[in-house]
Design brief:
Elements: E1 2-5, E2 11-15, H1 30-38, H2 43-53, H3 64-78, H4 82-97, E3 102-107, E4 113-119, H5 121-130, E5 133-141, E6 148-155, E7 161-168, H6 174-187, E8 195-198, H7 202-211, E9 216-219, H8 221-232, H9 242-251, H10 256-270, H11 276-283, H12 305-315, H13 324-351, H14 362-370, H15 373-383, E10 389-395, E11 401-407, E12 413-419, E13 424-427, H16 431-435, H17 440-448, E14 469-474, E15 479-486, E16 493-498
Parallel strand pairs: 5-8, 8-9
Antiparallel strand pairs: 1-2, 3-4, 4-7, 5-6, 6-7, 10-11, 11-12, 12-13, 14-15, 15-16
Length: 499
């Protein structure tokens, strides 16, 4: 290029030789550059990969700087209308691809976006099937703007983690959480979870109390223990057993009176009667002590670990320079990976026989037929303890028999009530009430009464192989369809099982 310096200090171009120029990128490789960038691979590694695919850097036709500039130009173009407009454009496109895609946006007085909640069709179906227990966590921060990112998560029938919705928040104040929880209920047709687990955030707790009426609110045990170490670390030095004693208070006792007695012993033993943090924790005992939770279904969940697992996966893809639309794309990828894990678990369940340690016992065969492999393993673990259980006393004077059941070398005894004619079996251990599989004490009594199958009332559909079979009413023709709901990618597929 020829140029001349003019009097005003500017240059004037008078000649251009096109042969001296080169393309910033080969058009045929543009789609590859974008795919790699969407995958979260950093530009330097992406350039190296493209060079190997082309047989060497010299064959690419562009430099690392060109690669970087192209991506920067692409992102600037994507955000040409501003972050808010790009976000709404993204949501509009998702709604076009997925008519059930739902999003709610809150604006401030200046009509700027503050809080966002969204859920796709798959998340909505997942919540309808498995939204009985939910965890919610906002410990993850998205990018250099440090916005709180919240995930609603839960268990599927394979006990794999699934997502029910996600949010980007402006702050973590009570009003923001109230708006979010109301948006969550609106999206999920006002269906409230039975149980929700969070950390000890006071603003979040207040919002849950106001919005999720009737939902039991549990505290994440992992966060609780971390806070205990932070506030009471001085009590854990020199091989102290304080932490293990505290964990016993959390997990070990079934009866409330047992917990209260042991908690008082803990106070006296470590001289913490006046510790303000521990006293506040005691005031929240209904949210973390097992003996106060045995009337609430938790599905075995005691923490927000599911949400945090997803956060950890998301960190593998994100970096501080990401714009909001890129972040959403990476989140989609993480959710799709969770779904792929379920597809694999479903394939294995259909094509591999579960390991059966009691193949000659009918109730175990029955469990293997109805439960998913993961739940079957847990049921089989309970059954393996039946031989260690003993009937210490019994009262069969009425139709509802009563039995005292204990385990070898354990002083604790549990009361089991059973009416075979009405298929009733209940244990004071309350394993079924909290997890929805029968405990070894109840199974011992069923074995004693020669009951060979799990009573129908004690098979929770959410743990079964048929958990995704839903009964749907066609209002136009007034008939019921049994449908198997499956959701690969962003498309809902419904396979008719029976008409």
């Amino acid at each position: 290029m020829g140029r001349t310096l003019m009097e005003n200090g500017k240059y004037r171009c008078h000649d251009f030789v096109e042969g001296h120029n080169h393309e910033h990128y080969i058009p045929s490789t543009t789609h590859m550059i974008l795919l790699i960038d969407d995958s979260g691979i950093r530009p330097k590694a992406a350039f190296e990969y493209m060079g190997r695919r082309a047989g060497g850097r010299q064959n690419l036709g562009y430099t690392p700087k060109d690669h970087h500039n192209y991506l920067r130009s692409k992102r600037q173009h994507d955000l040409g209308y501003g972050e808010a407009a790009s976000l709404l454009q993204y949501f509009t496109e998702q709604s076009r691809l997925d008519p059930s895609f739902s999003y709610v946006v809150q604006l401030d007085m200046d009509e700027l976006i503050t809080n966002i909640f969204w859920a796709d069709a798959r998340m909505i179906i997942e919540y309808a099937l498995f939204g009985d227990v939910v965890t919610f966590d906002t410990t993850f921060r998205t990018n250099k703007k440090n916005r709180p990112f919240g995930i609603f998560a839960g268990f599927n029938h394979h006990r794999g983690d699934i997502v029910f919705g996600a949010a980007l928040l402006y702050d973590e104040m009570v009003e923001s959480f109230k708006w979010l929880f109301e948006a969550f209920l609106k999206t999920h047709r006002q269906k409230k979870p039975i149980t929700i687990f969070t950390d000890q955030d006071a603003a979040m707790a207040k919002a849950i109390l106001e919005v999720f009426h009737g939902t039991w609110h549990g505290l994440c045990i992992w966060h609780l223990m971390q806070n205990a170490i932070k506030h009471l670390g001085n009590l854990m030095k020199n091989r102290s057993s304080f932490l293990s004693d505290l964990k016993k208070c959390v997990y070990q006792y079934v009866e409330e009176v047992q917990f209260e007695s042991v908690w008082e012993e803990l106070w006296i033993k470590y001289g913490v009667e006046n510790n303000s943090w521990l006293n506040r924790l005691y005031g929240l005992k209904e949210k973390w002590v097992s003996s106060y939770m045995n009337n609430t279904f938790t599905g075995g969940m005691r923490s927000t670990q599911l949400s945090e697992n997803i956060n950890a996966d998301l960190k593998d893809y994100t970096k501080s320079t990401l714009d909001i639309v890129q972040f959403f794309k990476h989140f989609e990828r993480v959710v799709n990976e969770k779904h792929a894990n379920e597809l694999k678990a479903e394939f294995d369940a259909r094509n591999k026989l579960p390991k059966n340690m009691f193949s000659h016992i009918k109730i175990i065969k029955h469990a293997g037929e109805v439960y998913t492999p993961k739940i079957f393993d847990l049921f089989q673990d309970e059954f393996s303890m039946v031989s260690d259980c003993h009937i210490k006393w019994k009262n069969e004077s009425s139709s509802l028999g009563e039995y005292g059941v204990g385990i070898d070398e354990q002083e604790i005894e549990f009361k089991v009530e059973c009416n075979p004619s009405e298929s009733i079996v209940q244990c004071s251990y309350r394993k079924f009430e909290t997890f929805s599989i029968l405990c070894c004490h109840a199974l011992k009594v069923l074995d004693l009464l020669d009951i060979k199958l799990i009573p129908k009332a004690y098979i929770l559909s959410r743990w079964t192989r048929a958990a995704r079979i839903m009964v749907i009413e066609d209002s136009r023709e007034k008939r019921l369809w049994n449908m198997l709901i499956w959701l690969p990618h962003n498309v809902i597929h419904c396979y008719a099982v029976n008409w």
